[in-house]
Design goal:
CATH architecture: 2-Layer Sandwich
Oligomer: single chain
Helix content: 25-40%
Order of helices and strands: EEEHEHEHE
Strand order of the largest sheet: 1-2-3-4-5-6
Mean pLDDT: 94
Strand content: 25-35%
CATH topology: Transcription Regulator spoIIAA
Shape: globular
Low-confidence stretches: none
Structural class: alpha/beta
Largest sheet: 6 strands, mixed
Distance between the termini: 34 Å
Number of helices: 3
C-alpha cells in the first residue's frame, strides 16, 4: 500500500489497488524533492513489474524543476513496464484556465512513451 499525505509543498500520492491507479495530486515543491519521491520510486520498483495493468493520474497545479525531473523518471519506469508487456496509461489533469499548465502537460506527453491523455478541468467556484 502506498499513501503519502499532502502537505503545503508536497502532493498527495496514493495507490488504488481496485483501480490499479497511482494518484499524484496537489503541488510539488518540496525542499528535498528526491528524498520526498524516493518511497514512490522504491514502491514502483517493487510493485510495477508484477502488474498487468497500471494507470497514473496526475493533477499537479504547480511543480518545481526537480519535481519535473522526478515525474520524467516515473514516466521512464512506466515506459519500461509497458515495453515488458504491462497495460500502462497516463491521465494528466490541468486547470483549463491555466495555459502554462497545458504547456507543461503537452511537454510531458511528448516525453511519454505510453498512452497519455490530457484532460482539462474547469474550476468550479
Amino acid at each position: 500500500m502506498l499513501h503519502i499525505p499532502a502537505t503545503k509543498s508536497t502532493p498527495e500520492i496514493s495507490f488504488s489497488e481496485e483501480f490499479h491507479t497511482l494518484f499524484i495530486t496537489g503541488e510539488s515543491y518540496p525542499e528535498n524533492t528526491f528524498a520526498f519521491f524516493e518511497p514512490v520510486f522504491e514502491w514502483l520498483h517493487m510493485n510495477l513489474p508484477g502488474m498487468k495493468k497500471f494507470n497514473l493520474h496526475v493533477n499537479i497545479s504547480y511543480m518545481n524543476s526537480s519535481s519535473t525531473k522526478c515525474m520524467l523518471d516515473i514516466l521512464d519506469l512506466l515506459a519500461k513496464s509497458s515495453q515488458a508487456g504491462s497495460d500502462v496509461s497516463v491521465s494528466w489533469y490541468y486547470d483549463q484556465e491555466n495555459d502554462r499548465a497545458l504547456d507543461i502537460a503537452e511537454e510531458f506527453e511528448e516525453d511519454a512513451e505510453v498512452p497519455f491523455e490530457i484532460i482539462a478541468l474547469k474550476q468550479v467556484l
